[in-house]
Design goal:
heterodimer; A: 2 domains; 0% strand; B: alpha/beta; five-stranded mixed sheet; 26 helices; 41% helix; globular
Chain lengths: 471, 816
């Protein structure tokens, strides 16, 4: 069975790739139940790719496991469910697929059934997912009843006719459902307690399943983008998770929870991008993050190395280095903006996106320029050699995603900059400087708070090793 | 009541005896998890350990059934053993009964344990070695003080508003907690709290004992700290200080006839009689060891069980002689790899290093070294860049977007094309030769750096060199020297594997043995050393050249460290040796892949090599090689005894010639050194197999590396100890490692062996308590087998039949 399902998954990938290049007639499925649009095609290609990798990886990684068939059946089933979810046009079908996705994922978190802690983690995740499904059902039920139609397309077309309270209520429910699925604060705990899952499942989960929150927002963008207050709220919850997840990451001592914290942060950022009105940016982020995180999970066994206790030493800043860094950062941001067709002068929420690229370029350049042991010439060519391909590839993906999603309603809805946006930027810049200067280390309270708030569910910890069971 | 510190310390030491030390993953040495119980008979020890840790001490019915069905347990032996206890049922019935006795045991309900939860949280934070960017504050003050700093903010612990709410010192903490408990009870209190988290406690034990690691120096922790924190927490959190059970220290077990014990003995006896039957086939001429004609080359391998396979196949290629010697080649050294900051111990855990060996670029290869250094600096900058971007609070998001595409490509390549990656790695190494192609070990003595932290002198004095060279040839019993002598250390090759070091050389403290081999080869090529050896009666011919090499135990490739620009041996001879080693690699991998659930085209000799290479490069592979799984025997004697036998990679082989060791010192060294280490390895594999949860580390599939030093299962908790399931089992149902206690077979006069046991309590203890079995093959008059009996008596082996008649093969193959 593993062989067959692995081949099938790669077959689906080939098919999805074909559909991505040669889009089918969107109406072929009759529109009542299914609808293949850009989002469907894109997510299908990405999901089947990561799923194919995870299937192939598990062929060796899970070899000899007792319940291998069950494992593969769930993995493959989950892939199909995600495909169905992205293609569903009927509200009931969408809710059913969403619920099934959570159910099977919880099963996989508890794949090792004889191990009580795995069952506890699975149970916690299942309860989280079921509440998410209930919220989603509430939102879609409300929209369906109010709009008098049971297709997503119909609801989206009718958004303009709905009353503000209905839109607000539905938006809040949708955002909450997305937050649970994407493990945003304060619903992050199921994800940080999910390391009882076999490593490949974690890879698939962090690269694929948590993204469903973003897909949900993309799918219902016309609803959640209807009111700017809701968009600001999305920016806020995304920003909080991005900051907190990244801060949690600093204090984690085990590799998997560290990766989990990073996922919370990256999902926060993805939702933030959606809240800024840039659905393609959010989708590009979630698929690139998916590759990145799946890789790191599958490579989680590689962290063992000889280390030395090194008190943090900071190289003396140099004026020339600083200047080079600043110029490169601005140039990098400008390059990205130009490549992705953003205006360099008009200020709107897209500027925030560009600013994050600037910060990344800035930090990368600083890090390279400071490597004293590299010769000056090496440093000179290393900076563009690292940055140009990275920015180029990202811009290409960004533009590609934009092209595929151009038919999506409300794909791009840049908003005006509000004090909240500026505040957000300010907080991140402040955090960057504080971490760089080491100010955070002065607060023991902050350290303990970060450690305590990122703990997994107590019953999922294995203290008495006798309780462990491998299958 | 003021607490007397020395009393407290002694009580803690005693209580901690029961928990075995746990080495970090960087140097995962083998050790008996029940080392603290070795002063008791095996049977009683495992029963006590079961009370303390809940672990099983004997194989389960499933394992016995597998052995029984594979014919590894001689029915006659089993029937006899059972009859001694008055049991007459059929073995199948007994297997069913054992299975019923074990029961499935309704899986327990997961429950929170607040004390353990808080303890493991702070232990993981304190003992982290570089995983977290923001480490626990105040670690430099020690564990207790650091915990005292964070405790007021820990909402999981009630009633501590400020640091002054907890005692200021460890001593005060003990006084507060132990008030009201009589001193006699302390030890049991300590034992109870130490055994609650044997993984973390074992790691602290290792770190505190090896106080000179940089991490321990910077951030000190001891079991005293651990207990002070734990007991203080227990008091605050309303946990019992003293265990509920009366008198609490493990009580003595019973001697009831216990089915698994009988079955294990029968299995061990079956293995013994088959092995001895095979050894009996050895030509009688070997009674006096050494052969006299000169082979084309002599190759010295580690005593490791994996060497047995490759040695057989090397010998089959031509006129070669192979020998077994502890893989650190008798050089007690600390090694600093080229370009590395860390210094690693490279000798057995029971030996203290005496020399530091660093790697310096050879004069004639400075340009190569510079090229290599340049690339390494670039690589380091890249690694550092990834790390800092990944963790930066603001830059991480843009970084993920810029790098995601590359990670996607790398993921696809590593998953779908592992064999291609192996070839790519080889090409890169060919283009950019590593340190072994341009660096030399600092064998010569250099000035001692007075500022050095552990003050080990760099290099060896002339006297030390002569000593190590002489010891090597004496222990192995050499009289002839071939034109080419190769010392082959060994190391594994496996990516993405936290347990890599457990597959490296156990005699080099879980490091690759190549560096040690280079040191001994350099010593033996030294003219001045040879001069002195000649005076001591070891005449090494002028045309003999010593080479070093490394056996890659994952791919079975043997690399020779030779300066290709200026080879010290005629190129023709070198080429021939390399060709033969390549042929041996093909044969050895063909034998090994059969045991690895692999399907390869047996008609193509390269197919098995490629499969082994794929495993060496595949990040998804949890079973790159079998390590020492299967180990069951330890043969000390000349190779002629075993040369014609296929021992299935289950025996340690130590070369020894009793005729050349009149005063018995060489044998004494072997028995107190390599043999004891063999017992450590064997018990680690034994206990990890019989109870993988309590003494092993569970399945790799759900493991999570914590602090870069250890492994937890899933979300965290206690550290796992021992070996992972995939190192021991062919699949979830079938054991690869047969859990048998090590059987030593020594080819030497009985009185010589007896005298050595007499002199060394450790040996007597292991043998009398049956942690180790011993049979002597007495060369005079007729290679008769004599078995050591607990208590110190010797009994002639009666029931040994020669292998052609034996019903139980020594090498039953694997049950796949």
């Amino acid at each position: 069975m593993p062989t067959v399902l692995t081949r099938l998954t790669w077959g689906l990938f080939a098919l999805s790739l074909g559909l991505l290049v040669w889009p089918p007639d969107p109406g072929w499925a009759g529109d009542t139940f299914l609808r293949i649009d850009g989002l469907t095609r894109l997510m299908a290609a990405v999901t089947t790719f990561v799923s194919g990798i995870v299937h192939s990886f598990s062929r060796r990684y899970m070899a000899g496991a007792r319940h291998l068939d069950r494992f593969y059946a769930r993995l493959f089933g989950l892939t199909l469910i995600v495909l169905l979810l992205t293609a569903a046009n009927h509200l009931v079908l969408f809710v059913l697929a969403w619920t099934a996705m959570g159910w099977v994922l919880a099963d996989l978190i508890g794949h090792v059934r004889g191990w009580p802690q795995a069952r506890a983690a699975s149970g916690y995740a299942r309860r989280s997912f079921l509440s998410g499904s209930a919220l989603l059902a509430g939102a879609l039920g409300l929209l369906g009843v109010q709009a008098g139609t049971w297709t997503i397309g119909g609801v989206l077309a009718a958004v303009g006719t709905l009353s503000a309270p209905v839109v607000v209520a539905a938006s809040v429910l949708l955002v909450l459902a997305a937050m649970i699925q994407s493990a945003l604060v304060p619903f992050h705990r199921w994800l940080l307690s999910s390391m009882t899952a076999p490593t490949p499942v974690s890879g698939f989960m962090h690269a694929g399943l948590v993204n469903a929150g973003g897909v949900l927002l993309a799918r219902f963008a016309p609803v959640v983008f209807e009111l700017s207050a809701v968009m600001l709220g999305i920016v806020f919850v995304g920003g909080v998770s991005a900051l907190l997840g990244q801060a949690w990451m600093l204090v984690q001592t085990d590799v998997k929870r560290q990766l989990g914290s990073s996922t919370v942060a990256q999902m926060g950022f993805m939702v933030l991008q959606a809240g800024l009105g840039f659905i393609p940016a959010a989708i590009a982020h979630l698929l690139l993050h998916g590759f990145y995180k799946a890789y790191l999970f599958l490579a989680a066994g590689s962290v063992v190395e000889h280390t030395q206790p090194t008190p943090g030493e900071r190289p003396a800043p140099s004026v020339i280095g600083g200047l080079v860094t600043l110029i490169t950062a601005v140039a990098g941001g400008a390059l990205f903006a130009t490549l992705t067709g953003k205006s360099l002068t008009a200020l709107n929420s897209g500027t925030v996106l560009t600013l994050f690229v600037v910060i990344a370029v800035l930090h990368a350049t600083r890090s390279l320029v400071r490597r004293a042991e590299l010769s000056a010439t090496t440093r000179l060519w290393a900076v563009p050699a690292v940055l140009l391909p990275a920015i180029g590839l990202y811009a290409a993906v960004y533009n590609g995603v934009g092209a595929v999603l151009h038919t999506l309603p409300m794909a791009e809805a840049p908003t005006a900059l509000t004090p909240l946006h500026w505040g957000l930027v300010a907080v991140f810049v402040l955090a960057y400087v504080a971490l760089d200067r080491g100010w955070h280390r002065a607060s023991t309270r902050l350290y303990v708070t970060l450690l305590n708030t990122s703990q997994p569910v107590p019953t999922t910890l294995l203290h008495n090793r006798e309780q462990y069971h491998a299958h | 009541m003021p607490t007397d510190r020395s009393v407290l310390r002694a009580r803690i030491e005693n209580a901690a005896e029961y928990v075995g030390p746990l080495w970090p993953l960087q140097a995962f040495n083998a050790a008996n998890p029940l080392v603290g119980f070795e002063d008791q008979p095996f049977d009683r020890a495992v029963q006590q350990a079961e009370q303390l840790f809940g672990g099983q001490g004997y194989p389960g019915a499933r394992v016995f059934r597998q052995a029984w069905e594979n014919g590894e347990i001689d029915p006659d032996v089993l029937a006899r053993r059972l009859a001694e206890h008055g049991i007459t049922q059929r073995p199948e019935v007994l297997l069913d009964r054992m299975e019923r006795d074990e029961g499935d045991g309704e899986p327990s309900m997961p429950a929170d344990h607040p004390l353990n939860r808080v303890m493991t949280k702070w232990l993981a934070a304190f003992l982290d070695q570089g995983q977290a960017d923001w480490a626990m504050p105040s670690r430099e003050d020690g564990f207790y003080a650091a915990w005292r700093t964070v405790a007021p903010y820990d909402t999981a612990v009630p009633g501590i508003a400020r640091s002054s709410d907890v005692p200021a010192t460890v001593a005060a903490a003990f006084e507060e907690v132990l008030a009201g408990y009589p001193e006699e009870q302390w030890e049991s209190i300590f034992a109870h709290h130490l055994a609650a988290l044997p993984g973390w406690v074992g790691f602290i034990k290792w770190r505190a004992r090896r106080g000179n690691t940089p991490w321990q120096e910077a951030y000190p922790i001891s079991l005293v700290d651990y207990l002070a924190v734990r007991l203080t927490l227990a008091r605050r959190m309303g946990h019992a200080i003293a265990p509920d059970r009366a008198n609490e220290l493990p009580v003595n077990g019973t001697d009831r006839p216990y089915l698994p014990r009988i079955w294990l003995r029968a299995w061990e006896e079956s293995y013994r009689s088959a092995l001895l039957g095979d050894l009996r086939q050895a030509p009688l001429s070997t009674r006096n060891g050494a052969s006299t004609d000169r082979p084309d080359a002599q190759l010295v391998f580690c005593i490791d069980t994996r060497s047995e396979v490759i040695r057989r196949h090397v010998e089959a290629q031509g006129h070669y002689e192979t020998h077994g010697y502890a893989g650190f080649f008798g050089v007690p050294m600390q090694h600093q790899p080229y370009g590395a900051e860390e210094r690693v111990k490279s000798c057995p855990p029971i030996v203290a290093p005496k020399h530091r060996i660093a790697e310096r670029p050879a004069e004639q290869h400075r340009d190569r070294a510079e090229r290599y250094d340049g690339w390494m600096r670039l690589k380091a900058a890249g690694t550092q860049l990834l790390k800092t971007l990944k963790k930066n609070v603001a830059a991480a998001f843009g970084f993920v977007e810029g790098s995601g595409g590359f990670f996607g490509g790398a993921m696809a390549a590593r998953t779908l094309l592992p064999s291609g990656l192996f070839r790519l790695g080889k090409t890169i190494r060919d283009r950019l030769p590593g340190p072994e192609a341009f660096a030399e070990p600092t064998v010569d003595r250099e000035a001692v750096d007075p500022n050095d932290r552990d003050g080990l002198p760099v290099g060896l004095s002339h006297e030390a060199k002569v000593l190590y060279a002489e010891a090597a040839f004496q222990l192995m019993g050499w009289t002839t020297f071939a034109p080419l002598v190769v010392f082959a250390g060994h190391g594994s090759q496996t990516p993405n594997n936290p347990y890599k070091s457990s597959l490296d050389c156990g005699a080099c403290a879980a490091n690759p043995g190549g560096p040690n081999a280079r040191v001994l080869a350099t010593i033996c090529n030294d003219e001045a050393v040879r001069e002195d050896l000649r005076e001591r009666g070891l005449d090494i011919p002028d045309d003999t050249v010593f080479l070093a090499g490394q056996h890659n135990t994952t791919t079975d490739e043997i690399r020779l460290f030779v300066d290709e620009d200026d080879p010290p041996v005629p190129p023709g001879a070198l080429d021939r040796l390399r060709q033969d080693l390549r042929a041996a690699q093909a044969d050895a991998t063909a034998e090994r892949v059969e045991t690895m659930n692999a399907t390869v085209d047996s008609g193509r000799p390269e197919a098995s090599i490629q499969e082994a290479q794929r495993r060496a490069a595949d990040w998804a592979e949890t079973r790159p090689e079998w390590g020492l799984a299967g180990n069951a025997g330890f043969v000390v004697g000349p190779r002629a005894l075993t040369r014609d036998l296929d021992l299935d990679g289950r025996c340690f082989l130590h070369s020894y010639d009793w005729t050349m060791d009149e005063d018995g010192t060489a044998l004494e060294n072997i028995m107190t050194g390599p043999l004891v280490v063999g017992e450590w390895i064997n018990t680690q594999y034994y206990f990890s197999t019989v109870d993988n949860a309590a003494y092993g580390s569970g399945s790799k599939v759900t493991q999570n590396v914590v602090g870069k030093v250890g492994v937890v299962q899933g979300n965290g908790g206690d550290l796992m100890t021992g070996l992972p399931l995939q190192s021991l089992m062919a699949d979830d149902e079938t054991v690869m490692h047969r859990p048998l206690r090590l059987l030593a077979v020594i080819h030497a006069p009985v009185d010589r062996v007896d005298a050595i046991i007499e002199r060394h309590a450790i040996l007597a203890q292991l043998l009398d308590h049956e942690w180790l079995h011993l049979t002597v093959m007495a060369p005079e008059p007729d290679n008769a087998f004599v078995r050591y009996q607990p208590g110190g008596t010797w009994e002639a082996e009666s029931s040994i039949v020669s292998s052609s008649e034996a019903e139980t093969p020594v090498s039953p193959g694997t049950a796949l």
